[in-house]
Design goal:
This protein is of the alpha/beta class. It has two domains: about 200 residues, 2-enoyl-CoA Hydratase, Chain A, domain 1; about 45 residues. α4 crosses α5, α5 runs antiparallel to α6 and α9 runs antiparallel to α10.
């Protein structure tokens, strides 16, 4: 694939049975489905390459506004494929610019939603934690069992989880390796919602609600919100003002006010 490849073109090239399945909803919502159900969608080298490529294309394709990450079958992701790890292939599950699976630390400006069905464990949980929003099915389970395997959740779990949960609960999960179920995750504020229907359906509804807004304004707001735990108020205020000034130069800034005055739905151009 080239630098000009669109997500729609990547979708057309995707074959049934590949380790990563793709879909495009409403022409603007990209769905990436981890597709190794026999291994509970564990990450191997092939899946890492495909996931990293898809994320890069989603982020640079101006027609795509929201990404959804989910898993096939009855699991979200069990983390690294330990058979590959034991064979000395751990490094192949990371990319230099994207982290685990080419996803956990990939440069991303667009909102991403994790649609979690079944277990999201170890690196799989770290994939979910690196998303902006999480929707879980009733069967979802979240955990970082790395310490029970002589490892640590170094792909983001050990510092992102304390930002997402009360400190004592996060530390208990990290140090004991014990998971929590979907109801506990909801009560602790880890997920946006728990649903009986497939999590992808609820994630799609959430993505459509996001997609109804001006994409540049969404991305600018997200850029500031993502730094809320890292920067001081003064720095965040300056960043917000700078991004607001840039938004005021866009066609969508004028369109938003005009649509409100004219009592119609806005037509966003993304510029």
């Amino acid at each position: 694939m080239t630098e000009e490849t669109s997500f729609a073109e990547l979708l057309d090239a995707c074959e049934p049975g590949q380790s990563l399945q793709l879909d495009l909803i409403d022409g603007q919502i990209a769905v990436l489905t981890l597709n190794r159900p026999s291994a509970r969608n564990a990450l191997n080298a092939e899946l890492t390459v495909r996931l990293a490529e898809a994320v890069r294309i989603v982020e640079r394709d101006p027609s795509v506004n929201v990404g959804i990450l989910t898993g096939a079958g009855g699991a979200f992701c069990a983390g690294a494929d330990l058979k590959e790890v034991l064979a000395g292939g751990l490094d192949r599950l990371f990319t230099d610019d994207g982290g685990l699976g080419g996803f956990t630390h990939a440069p991303r400006a667009k909102p991403w939603i994790a649609a979690v069905n079944g277990p999201a464990l170890a690196g799989g949980f770290e994939l979910a934690l690196s998303c902006d929003l999480v929707v879980a099915s009733r069967s979802a389970v979240f955990g970082l069992p790395e310490v029970s395997r002589g490892l640590m959740a170094s792909a983001g779990g050990i510092y992102r989880l304390p930002r997402s949960l009360p400190r004592v609960l996060a530390l208990e999960m990290i140090l004991t390796g014990k998971p929590i179920d979907s109801d506990q995750a909801l009560a602790a504020g880890l997920v946006n919602g728990v649903v009986e229907l497939p999590a992808l359906d609820a994630a799609t509804a959430m993505a459509r609600a996001i997609n109804a807004n001006a994409p540049l304004a969404v991305q600018a707001s997200l850029a500031v919100a993502r730094k809320a735990f890292d920067d001081r108020d003064g720095s965040l205020y300056e960043l917000g003002n700078r991004l607001q000034a840039e938004l005021q130069k866009t066609a969508d800034y004028t369109e938003g006010s005009r649509a409100f005055v004219e009592k119609r739905a806005p037509h966003w151009l993304g510029r």
